[in-house]
User: What shape does this take?
Amino acid sequence: RGNAGGYMPAGVDVAKLFLPPRARIISEVDKTGRSAIYINDGVGSDADIPLYVVVDKRTASASEILTAALQDNQRATVVGYKTFGKGRIQNVQPLEDGSGIAVTKAKYITPNGRDIHGVGIVPDRPPTASCGPQDNVVLCLDGII
Assistant: This one.
């Protein structure tokens, strides 16, 4: 919640900690349709322990990769508000005048085939109480766990 970005490989690595071996994490699809599929090649975790992910409108990019992987693999219950919807890989190219231009390289597709760009991830459950950025996560999960 409130994590507006992050390094894509870090989102993949964190997902590996919570998903069973061979679970699909994310696909990266370029403009030609070629896919790079990220699979959990690690040992994963005990899938019997309940896991909850709290998100909001500022949850984006690598945070959404992690959230979608856990949700699509039915490993976690996502609680909160719809996420930002940053599902594109972009490189910023500097220009001579000091400004820059963002060039879209590819898009992310979740394990269940969702393109979240501009749409975001809809949580499985809304919070039952106030769940603002400054609220304790215990309030966000009140009545859920």
The mean pLDDT is 92.
